UniProtKB/TrEMBL annotation:
Residues 15-189 form the Endonuclease/exonuclease/phosphatase domain. One of its GO terms (molecular function) is catalytic activity. InterPro entries: Endo/exonu/phosph_ase_sf (IPR036691), Endo/exonuclease/phosphatase (IPR005135). PANTHER family: BNAC02G09200D PROTEIN (PTHR33710), ENDONUCLEASE_EXONUCLEASE_PHOSPHATASE DOMAIN-CONTAINING PROTEIN (PTHR33710:SF64). Transmembrane segments: none annotated. The lineage of its organism: Eukaryota, Viridiplantae, Streptophyta, Embryophyta, Tracheophyta. This is Endonuclease/exonuclease/phosphatase domain-containing protein. Signal peptide: none annotated. It comes from the Eukaryota.
Length: 334
């Protein structure tokens, strides 16, 4: 089971459940967004003017039961791969420090009712200690103490991400840059041993200063070898402008003397091998750029270059658009 949490500026990751906060969108807009994300279920909480707004969406075949919700949370039952219930609470901490106590009180009320395995995820708008912020004014100690007090009272564990640290950057230059780890997954301390393969990651974004976090309950489980994509060739629009692809088609068509069906099979074989190579190359480029973004953001001190970060995000956006076109085309064909 994968749970994606994001302070909303776009969507598009294959997850079992998606929780978005600060959507700034009214709930009647989300049926369209749900459809675009290929999700089946959806519960949206209205934005208040130009701020706030939450949504939880889940894909077909996922059994989700909404328990309660507010402007700061959506509480639910989700059944995992073995049909065992998990209590998942999508959480958004009040952005105003003066009103954040009400968010903590709400989370405590939910926690007192939980009997199942419990996972909380979202944008807490808070840090646990000074290691979770660089730049700008130091956070008041009382705010960090309040966050830790909630974790201690509810017997929760903060899950560290496997890659990256900060989840929000203000994209300023030099000493004006501020970086914070505002997004967290928390889990009941008593349940840690029941998730042997749990994995959490930061998903770097191309068009947002706020990155997503994803939790995969089976992320560390060894996977069976995937079927070779060359055996499932499909024509893809994202290669249509590639001169190399055109040459492969021409050469395969001219060199093979069989009937038209044999020629099509030859073209599919040759182009499929090339397509597989190009897709793997594109995937490696995306991974490299995401790693570079992590390196830039998590660089200690004042070494973070805002212009370099913007350039990397722009490159990532172009590659992600191309990858999205690739998968959209395959879904239409299938």
């Amino acid at each position: 089971m994968k749970i994606l949490c994001w302070n909303y500026r776009g969507i598009g990751n294959p997850a079992t459940v998606i929780f978005l906060c600060e959507t700034k969108v009214q709930s009647n807009k989300f049926p369209f967004i749900r459809s675009k994300c290929r999700m089946e279920g959806c519960l949206a909480v209205n934005a208040c003017g130009k701020s706030g707004g939450l949504v939880m969406m889940w894909k077909a075949g996922t059994k989700v039961e909404i328990k309660n919700y507010s402007g700061n949370h959506i509480d639910s039952f989700i059944h995992d791969e073995n049909n065992k219930p998990i209590r998942f609470t999508g959480f958004y901490g009040n952005a105003d420090p003066n009103n954040r106590k009400s968010s903590w009180d709400m989370l405590k009320r939910v926690g007192r009712l939980v009997k199942e395995r419990w996972i909380i995820g979202g944008d807490f708008n808070a840090i646990l200690d000074n290691s979770e912020k660089e730049g700008g004014r130091r956070k008041p100690q009382t705010l960090m103490d309040d966050f830790r007090e909630v974790i201690d009272e509810l017997s929760l564990v903060d899950l560290k991400t496997d890659n990256g640290w900060f989840t929000w950057v203000n994209n300023r230059e030099g000493t004006a840059m501020v970086k914070e780890r505002l997004d967290h997954f928390l889990i009941s301390a008593s349940d840690v041993d029941s998730f042997l393969f749990i994995e959490t990651k930061v998903i770097r974004q191309s068009n947002s200063d706020h990155d997503a976090i994803v939790l995969d309950t089976m992320g560390r489980k060894p996977r069976e070898k995937q079927r070779d994509s060359r055996l499932m060739f499909r024509y893809d629009m994202c290669w249509a402008k590639e001169a190399e692809a055109k040459n492969i088609i021409k050469n395969a068509w001219k060199m093979y003397t069989g009937d038209i069906m044999d020629k099509l099979e030859k073209v599919g074989h040759d182009l499929g091998a090339w397509q597989f190579k190009m897709y793997k190359m594109m995937s490696r480029q995306i991974d490299t750029i995401k790693s570079n973004i992590c390196r830039i953001i998590d660089r200690p001190g004042e070494g973070c270059d805002g212009n370099e970060l913007k350039a990397m995000r722009l490159k990532l956006g172009k590659l992600l658009d191309r990858e999205e076109q690739y998968w959209a085309q395959r879904l239409r064909v299938n």
